[in-house]
Amino acid sequence: MNVENRTIFENDNLQVLRDLDTDTIDLIYLDPPFNSNRTFEAPVSSEAAGTGFKDSWTLDDLDNASHGELAEKQPQLYHTISAAEFSHGKAMKAYLIMMSIRMLEMHRILKPTGTLYLHCDDNASHYLKMVMDSIFGKDNFRNEIIWQRAVTSKGNLKKGLARDSDVIFRYSKTNTFVWNPKAVTIPYDMANLDEKTKKQYAYVEPDTGRLVSYTSLTAQTQDPDSHLTYEIMGVTRTWRWAEARMHKEIKAGRIVQIRPGNVPRYKRYLDEQKGRTLNNIWTDIPNLTAKNKERIGYPTQKPLALLERIIRASSNPNDMVLDPFCGCATTCVAAERLQRQWIGIDLSPKSFELVQRRLEQHGIIKQIHHRTDIPSP
Predict the structure, then answer these.
(1) Distance between CA atoms of 5 and 56, rounded to whole angstroms?
(2) β-pair type (235-238, 229-232)
(3) What is the pLDDT at residue 1?
(4) Which residues are 238's β-sheet partners?
């Protein structure tokens, strides 16, 4: 790897990406401009004062080489982008070219076991999905994560529904990638259980007060000739387990028969379960409010909890994490807190200052490398 850990580049990310070594990054998270046709600025009184960016695009923003590079090297991708111009105009074409030439470099530097998360919204998500399918291959698409930013909608409902969610696309480079299921398993809050869990664990064990669920032990298909068909507690069925396993669980007190003749069931305690496994709709991490202590005023700041979940799910300790649009450096802070290596890139000189300040707020004193050049080969 030709870049040191804990490096912030103050530069055009395309120039930096092009000089990073191939197959060296374990995880990329990017929260780029969304083509929202807006200008974002941090409040003057905030810690992030002086930061911001213009999120509107024209073909004049791109050099001719970008067009030629895509047309010559990625003709199918270029045709996809050109098609977007007919339905969404030249601004969308310019935005997608800007994203595509950078995404090609991100694909190159990602390790074969690596994963990329692209954060966007419904302004361009449908076109970005086509770009990502072209670059990474449609078979390497893993998830479309819907992140619900706000629990309570504040939008104007007179003409439609409030737009309170973002989209996060998850792609791997190959079919062999890092994935840690524990990172997307949420422990149960015993004092605040959801209705589905309450219904499933509706029984309270009298002696212990523990919540219990009695689950079925029978196989979905009953087959008299199966080796799993035998008698237990006076009841003959085709069971889910072999007879030796069944007797072991009976001895442990986990197989119960409510009354003679009833089909035995398995006793499962809620406090022994790992937790609730997330699906692709994330509603448990709210966006930052103005009163949140974590908030520093950066206009598109994301919660640390969101980045920490992504980093835990798709990387391991000491892996290299890259954020090519690092802004107020939330990804860098989350990576440091989780013992990962990291690189951030942003045009603003404030990113270096903010990552230092935010790490110090978490009691982390580390030497951060600030570079305005590009990596050496």
Answers:
(1) 33
(2) antiparallel
(3) 79
(4) 229
Strand duo 229-232 + 276-277: pairing: unpaired
| Closest-CA residue to 331 (of 6, 3, 35, 10) | 6
Chain centre distance of CA 119: 9
* b/e sequence 318-346, b meaning 16+ C-beta within 10 Å: ebbbbbbbbbbbbbbbbbbebebbbbbbb
Q: Give the ranges where 74-163 is alpha helix by DSSP (H).
A: 75-88, 90-109, 125-136
**From CA 195, how far away is CA 98, in angstroms rounded?**
46
Residue 273 scores a pLDDT above 80: yes
- Three-state SS at 140: helix
- Domains located in the chain, CATH noted: 7-186+278-371 (3.40.50.150), 195-272 (no CATH)
Q: What are the pLDDT digits (tens) for 112-162?
A: 999 999 999 888 899 999 999 999 999 999 999 999 987 766 666 777 888
Return the number of other C-beta atoms located less than 10 Å from residue 211's C-beta. Answer: 21
Q: What is the largest CA-CA distance in the chain?
A: 82
The amino acid at 242: A
Q: What are phi and psi of 238, to 5 degrees?
A: -90, 115
Burial class of 41 by CB neighbour count within 10 A (0 to 12, 13 to 18, 19+): middle
| 3-state helix, strand and coil shares in percent for the chain, rounded to the nearest 5 | 30, 25, 45
One-letter amino acid for residue 137 of the chain: G
| 23 neighbors 110 (Cβ within 8 angstroms) | yes
